[in-house]
Every structure is written in structure tokens, then in C-alpha cells.
Amino acid sequence: MSRTFIRRLVALGVCLLAAPVEAGPFSATLVDAQGAPLAHAVLSLHAETPAGTPAPAVLDQIDKQFVPYVLSVRRGTAVSFPNRDDIRHQVYSFSEPKRFELRLYQGTPSEPVVFDQPGVVVLGCNIHDWMLGYVYVTDDPWHAVSDAQGRVRFDDLPPGRYRVTLWHPQSPAGQPQPAGELAMTDAALKRRFTLDLASPPATPPAAPASSPFADAFQSKSRAAQP
Amino acid sequence: MLLSRNSVHARLTGLVALLLLSVILALYVSVRLVTESAIRQGASDRLAVGLRVFEQLLDTRAAQLRDGVVVLAADFGFREAVASGDLPTMHSVMLNQATRIGAQIALLMDDQERILASNVPGMPAGAYFPHTAALAIDSTLGRGAGVVVLGHEPYLLVEAEIRAPLPIARVVMGFHMGQDMAADLRSLVNLEVSFAAIGRTGESHVESTLAPDEVRVLLPAWQAGDLPDGMEELELDGRSYLTDELVLASEPDYRMIAFVHSSLDEALASFHELDSRMLLIALTALLVSLLGAQLLARSISKPVRQLARVAERVGQGDYRTPVELHRNDELGSLAGALNHMQAAIAERERRLAHNALHDPLTGLPNRALAIERLENAIRTERPLALLHLGADGFKAVYDACGASCVETAIQTFVHRVKSALPAGASLARPVVDEFLVQVDALGADASVGLADRLLQALGEPLVIEGHEFRIETRCGIALYPIDGVTADDVLRRAAIAMRDAAAQPGRLQLYQQGRDHAYDRQITLVRDLRHAGERGELLLHFQPKLDIRSGQVQQAEALLRWQHPAFGMVSPGEFIPLAERTGSIQHLTAWVIEAVLRQLAQWGERGVSVQVSLNISAEDLMSIDLPDRVRDLLGRYRVPAEQLVFEITESAVMQDQGRALAVLNGLRALGIHLSVDDFGTGYSSLAQLKRMPVQELKIDQSFIRELDEASDDAVIVRSTIDMSHALGLKIVAEGIEHGHSLDLLERWGCDVAQGYLISRPLPAAAFEHWLAERQRLPVSVE
Question: What is d(CA B394, CA B361) in angstroms, rounded to the nearest whole number?
Fold first, then answer.
């Protein structure tokens, strides 16, 4: 429960950071081919308007999971990977847009990772095979990740024309899918997008159920900490 | 001692052996059946367990191998190389890892199953991996592991996904399922293991821990598709295996099957040990029981043989040695019975021997024993006397009061003899009424004295059941060595002396030298008399009889004469008694009758008419057909019966009066005259005389020979003549030798005279001549 709550808080924060004050609200609902709401999908809007320097982003590791599961950032964003677990992680990526490896660490590494190429970066942890996370790097100034109901919302999207791109971890060939254009006026706009997936949407992998042995080990190591 | 096959000993032993063998055989067969079934069951169980273990092992093996591959797949450097598309690095890392875990095949493919790197011939980079299905989740060994056939050889393939962190490639490694793996598995499940890759088109490959020879046997059947289905027993090159199989892969073009074989021979090998043990036990038991049977059999057969030996000994006449067998069983009682039997037989044989040599009535030695004793004495050349006693009169005892009286009489008699005998004399009873007394070292005088004492003692009358009997006893004595040097001689001469003694006044006779020659003569006469008639040695003499009143001679007595070829003329006084004793008198009488009739017939033809008398014996009167025979002869010779006179003695009629009278009447009926001969010597009464159909009496010559007026004989003769005349009988006097005798007889009225005074007996021709002369001359007695 607390994880869902935190995730919502983060999503809200992102939206707040991204929303210009003067723009009108734009909301969209993303569904899959079956019409089911699609979570963890990225909707990005391309506009000719230049964007400012992207704000840094954070991708936590909580409870041996990447949070959020999908993070969308503008190119050049510096993302820090704080480790909120009491164990070490070794985050890596072999993805073309950004290859990196954060050696075993605890807490927040000193240097954030700057994603300077657009594309999909798949994150893994070298010591927790199930840990999986995505960083969607885009040039589009406007982008957001859908919530559990498949909703995205841009409150202060200025009027103008936008080219819409959709992406999801199970997108065909893992590639972003163009979803037409969008004409934004002062009025609030509400759209619904359908994304055909290569496979059914995968939920973010959870840590395997702890075994009595692991529990015992864990509690012991916790007790050992000052 | 050699034992026959049929002896109790051998049979008992054989029976025990047979029993034991059958028990052992039955035991062996049942143990064998049960064991074999248990072994088969065990082998089958072992195989089933083995197969499960095998399957588990194979799974485990696959899992282990997969783990190895997974470790490779998780290697960060490897993943990095794959993710970055660094092919040379990928290749080298993969091969390095393959070597590390012992895989023969290594292969890397992308998520589209396109091969990126490979060391498998025929699967170059860029090609698509053809065996994905074998590694699918439903393969025999579970997801990520499977068995495939590559180039006809079976491989265990395992795969692992390479994640970065999403799956970007798969690495596959293959392990050859060859001898090594089979041997490995065999060492774990303790069963023979075979891997067979059977192609649909017939090509096959087999890896096995079985011997190559066995596989060679197996292969053709498998290639022909004749695969075992479930648990089956296979016969491979002479060895038996229980086999089960596990299908590891079944692809369209081949099948991959693992076989496990449980060797029955190995299982049965333990039974062979049992076999040899049982054989050992059987042999030991057989040996021990045979030994036992031997002992048992010996304990039976030894006493049986002992008893058999005793029986044999008894058969040979040894009754003295008793059976020494002290047992409480049946053999013991048999031994007792045998002892008893032995004693009984000994007693019976002794009695038999006694009876054979003794007279049952008196218990005296019989003739055989007497001879033996005599021979024994003679063998030692001891002088002895043999007394031969003859006793007459027992017949009178029998006639008077029967057989039991005779026995009593004989026993009393013997008792008397015994009491009169000195010590050392031995008495024997060779014949019913004769006894032998043998006395050692007894001379002639002493023996005569002993005989005299004996005769005196025996002269006393016997009184039996109130009757008084007089037994006439006579005694002959022969001495050894004087009268003979052999037992035979002594015996014979004692017998002769005894016979001679009958004629002696003292009825006692010492053997006289030469007497046995007289005896021999008698034997010869008896023998020759039988044939004398046929040989023409017999002839008749006729003695004239004078009719005193008329002075005429018209009668004669036929007297038999025997001209013996060796002894010359034998007197009738000698051979007639012999003939009477030996039963040939009838023969002689028949001859005489016929000879007389023939002579009468001849004389009749010449006009000579004589009445001829002849003597008939007592035996003749017993033959009832005599009258018939005489009638036939009379008819044949045509002689009137009146010309015949048959003279009979008084005693001849005494034996069987009825029969004798019948014969006499028969003869009289023919017309034959009958005359009583030797009248006055017997005891015939006038009443008897009157019953007999006689016509004349013949006074015995003993009364006539010395007849004179004053003697007692004269009275007898005169009264006899008077009596005869009173009875109507003619009277004949014979033996007349003196003239005054004839005068007296004439005076007393005697009818006929016969004697030397008239004529001696004459041959037939002489008699005829004499008769003719007398008729021609005037009567002149002198």
C-alpha cells in the first residue's frame, strides 16, 4: 500500500515540475488493444517550442525494486539512483542510448547518470536478477508515464500542435510508437490512445518471496547495523 | 565279508540313501524354486527402483549441468559481451565455460533462435537452432534440458537465458551421453545402463556399459524396432538380464531411449553358492546317514549271520554249541528258539539213532548194533563167546491171549535172560524170537556152563494173565577166534549151532567144525530143488505092498528120489523137510502126482494093474484146487481114480481142518483112496479120524520095526488093528524087516504089509519085473 502511495506522490511531483503555469489542462487515457487501461506507458508530446534545461530526476531502489518502474526523462537529464535498501545494489544498463554500471553501492552514488541519448534504457541490478526498470529518454519537452488507470495529465500544456508518441515496455520491438498529432487550445483536452502491445503488459517484477533463511539472514544483518 | 546286493545290510543302506536323497532333492527343488522366484522378484524390484533412481539421477544431472550454464549466463562479463555484440569475446567465454563444466557442445543464439556462436558442426552462426522443442518445458527432463541426437549421437542439452536484464540470448550446452555417462550412472544405480539412439530409418547408435558382445546381440533387434516394452527378460550372449527402459526423446526422425539392465546371472550367482552349500550338506548328510545305516544294518545283519551259521552247524549235526546271542529283541528270542530247537533235534535224533539200533519192545540192541559190537570186539582181537538163543512157544502165547500177552511174555523172557547173565555180557534181539549174548573172554567150557544156566532159568514156565506157558529154548554157541575170525562167520556158525541144538537132548550145541558145510549143502539143495523136476533129476521108486491074506501084491508106494548132479542121490529125509520149509513141496507133489499117473498109464497099456499110493503134504491140503487138478490129470492119462491112494499125515489135517477136509472130500469124491500115514506119531483122536474120509491107516514103522509079542508096541499095534477094523478101515504096516513080525501081523489080522522083508523100493522097470517074477513063481516070502 505504501509503495502505491509513494509512487503516486512521485508522479504528482513530476507533473508539477513539468507543468507551465499558463497552459490549459490536457489529459489522456492509454489503453491496450483490449481496451484495458495501460499503466507504465509513456506519452510524449513533440513541439517545436524549445525546452529549457531539464531538471534532474531520481530513480530509487526500494525494496529491491526500481521505483518508478518506468521513468521518462528529457535528453540530458541527470538521474540519480539512490539506494533506499539496506543492501547494496549494482545498477547497470547495456542499452544502446546509455551504457553504464554503478558499482556496488549503498546510499546515493556521488555522480548522477546523465542520459544524453534518446531511447529506451533498460536497467538491471547485477546482484538482483529480477530487478528491472526503464528510463525512457526523449527529446520531447512534454512527457509523462501513465498511472495505474492509464491516465496522463498535462495541466499547463500551452496551446499549439503536438506530435504524440507512445511507448510501453511491451511495445512492438520495444520501440516508441507515433500516435498522431494533437492540437491544443485553451480549452481542456481529453484524449484516449490505444497501444498495441507485442505481449501482454508485464507488471513490474517483484522481489521473490523471502525464504525463512533469507528473513533470518536479513534480520540478523539489520540488527548488526548501528 | 562281501555283501550280496540282496542282503538286509545292503537293502537297509540303500533304503536310507534313497530316502535321504529324495528328501534332499525335494528340499533342493523347493529351495531353488523359491529362491529363484525371490531372486527374480528382487531383480525386478531392484530394476524398478533402479529405473526411478536412474531417472532422478538423470534429472539431477541435467539440473546440475543447467546450473552450470545458468552461472555462465549470469556472468556479467559474458552478458556484457553478448549485450554489446562482441562475438569473439562471447565465443571465447562460452567455450571457456563449456570446458569448465565439461560440455562438448556450446552454442549461443539470440532471442530469435538465430545462432550467434557455435562449436557444433552443421550449426553455423546465422543458422536457426533446430532443437528448441527438445528443450521446451514439457521435455522429459523439464524446462531447459532435453535429449537430442546430433550426428547420430545422443546429447543431453541444457540451455540458459541471458538477461540484460531482459532476455537477449540463450546459451545451450550439450553433454555427450556416452560410455562415461553410462558408467557414471551405473556406478550410482548399480545396474547396467545403455543409451540407444534409434533412427526411424534404421541407423542406430548405442552406448552401453554392457560388454560389446552383449550389445552386438542386442543391437539388431533394436534396429529392427523390436524394443523391449516394459520390464522384459533378455538373453544376451548367454547371460540373462532383466531390462526396463525410459524414453528420453521421441522425435519424428529418431527416438532416444535409456535402458537399465539388472543382471540375473549376478543375482543367481549367490544362489550358486547356495547350490554348492546344499550339495555339501547333502553329501555330508548322505555320508552320515549311510554310516548310521551301516551301523544299524550291521547290528541286525551280524546276529542274523551268526544265527545262520548256527543253523548251518545244526544242519551239519552239531547240536552241542548253543547260540551266544544275548539280546532283548526279536533276534534274541529267535536265538532262544534256535537253542531250544537245537536241543529238541538233538534229543529226537538220539532217540531215532537208538531206535535204529534197538528193539523198540525190549530196548535191546537190534541185529545191526549186535553186529557192530561183535565187529568192534573182533577188531580188538579179544576172544569171546557168542550165544545164539532160539525161543519157541510165543505163537502159542499169541494164540492163547493175543499180542499184548506176547509182548509181556517176551519182556519177561528177556528179563530172565538178563538176570542170568554175568556182568559185561551184552544181550541183543536180532529177530523176534532169537537172542544173541556176547560175552568177552569166555572159553568153551565156561560158555557151555553159562548156556546151561540160561536154559535152566528159561525152562521155568511163564505165567501170563493166569495162563501158563512153556517156552522151548535152544542155544548155539560159537567162539571167536576158534569158530571164525569174522563177525559174519561167528554169527552164522552160532546160528547153525543153535539150529543143531534143536536136535540135542540138552538143546545146547557148541558149533561143530564143518557144520557150516552141511548148511551150505542145504542152501544149495533148496536152490536146486525148485528146478529138479524140469532137469529130470527126480525119479520115482516103487515099494510093493503085500496083501497079507491073499499073498498077492497089487499095491505099491511111490517114493520120490532126487539124483543131484553134484551130491548124487539125495534122500527124501533130507530134501522133503527142506521143501516143506521153503514152500516148494507143492511143486514136488504136483510133479509126483503127474509122474505116478504117467507110470500107471504106461503100466495100464501093458496090462499091469497096480494101486499106487503117494504122499501129500499139509501144504497140498491147503490148496483148494487140488481135486480139480488131479481130476484133469486122471482124465488126461486115462487112469481110474481107484488106482490112486493119497497118503496124508495126521498133523497135516490139523492146521485148517475145514479146508483140509474140503480138499480131502473133493479127492474122495473123485474115487481116490485116502490113507492116514505115520499113524501113532501124532495126536489125532478117534473122533477126528472118524470125520476124515479115509479108507486105511498106516501104522508108523517105529511100532513095527522091532515088533515082538511081548513089547508095548504089540499092544498098540494090535489095538490099532482092531480099532481100525471096527471103524471099517484097512490097516497097513510098514517097515517090516523080519519074518516073525509079518507072522504076528498076519495073526492079528493086519491087511497089508510093506517093508524090506517084502522088497526095497524099486525103480519102475525093476518093480514091473519084480511083479512079473512074483506072479510067475509060487508065493514065497523068504
Answer: 15
CA distance B556 to B572: 17
| Interface contact flag, A129 B164, Cβ < 8 Å | no
Residue B256's identity, in one-letter code, is M
CATH number of the domain enclosing B428 = 3.30.70.270
pLDDT band at B2 (very low <50, low <70, confident <90, very high): very low
Give the mutation candidate from B71, B112, B163 for the A interface (greatest A CB count, under 10 A). B163
Domain extent at residue B97? 42-265
pLDDT tens per residue across span B30-53: 888 888 888 888 888 888 888 888
Is it the case that residue B487 has pLDDT exceeding 60? yes
Please give the residue of chain B at the shortest CA–CA distance from A94: B83
Residue type, B122: G
Peptide bond preceding B481 in cis form (omega within 30 of 0): yes
Do the beta carbons of residue B609 and residue B572 sit within 8 Å? no
B720 with B584, same domain?
yes
> How many other C-beta atoms can be found within 10 angstroms of the C-beta atom of residue B533?
18
Question: A–B: how many Cβ contacts below 8 A?
Answer: 23
Q: Do B163 and A122 touch (CB under 8 A)?
A: no
Cβ(B81)–Cβ(B90) under 8 Å? yes
- Tens digit of pLDDT for each residue in A25-35? 899 999 988 88
Identify the pLDDT of residue B342. 84
Q: How many domains does chain B have?
A: 4
Residue type, B578: L
**In angstroms, what separates the C-alpha of A218 from chain B's closest C-alpha?**
23
Given this model, what pLDDT does residue B613 score?
A: 94
A117 and chain B: CB distance < 8 Å anywhere? no
Residue B342 lies in a domain: yes
Summarised one tens digit per residue, pLDDT across range B535-574 is 889 999 999 999 998 888 999 999 999 998 888 888 888 8
pLDDT tens across B662-688, in order? Answer: 999 999 999 999 998 888 776 666 677
ipTM (interface pTM): 0.73
Enumerate chain B positions whose Cβ falls within 8 A of a Cβ in A: 74, 76, 79-80, 83-84, 163-166, 168
C-alpha cell at A64: 529491491
Helix%, strand%, coil% for chain B, nearest 5: 50, 25, 25
Residues B261, B335 within the same domain: no
Nearest CA in chain A to B80: A94
Q: Describe the crossing of helices B572-582 and B515-532 by its angle, rounded to 10 degrees.
A: 70
pTM: 0.46
Whether residues B642 and B543 share a domain: the answer is yes
The conformation of residue B651, written as its DSSP 8-state character, comes to G
User: What pLDDT band is residue A13 in, cutting at 50, 70 and 90?
Assistant: very low
Mean pLDDT computed over every residue of chain B: 84
pLDDT tens digits for B296-336?
A: 877 887 888 888 888 888 888 787 777 777 888 888 888 88
At B123, the amino acid letter reads: M
CA angle in degrees (0–180, nearest 5) for B145-B149-B155: 50
Distance between CA atoms of A178 and A199, rounded to whole angstroms? 18
Domain co-membership, B48 together with B185: yes
Looking at the partner chain, which of B80, B84, B165 has a beta carbon nearest the beta carbon of A129?
Answer: B165
> What is the per-residue DSSP string for B16-61?
HHHHHHHHHHHHHHHHHHHHHHHHHHHHHHHHHHHHHHHHHHHHHH
Test mutation, A94, A101, A121, A135, chain B, max B CBs within 10 A: A94
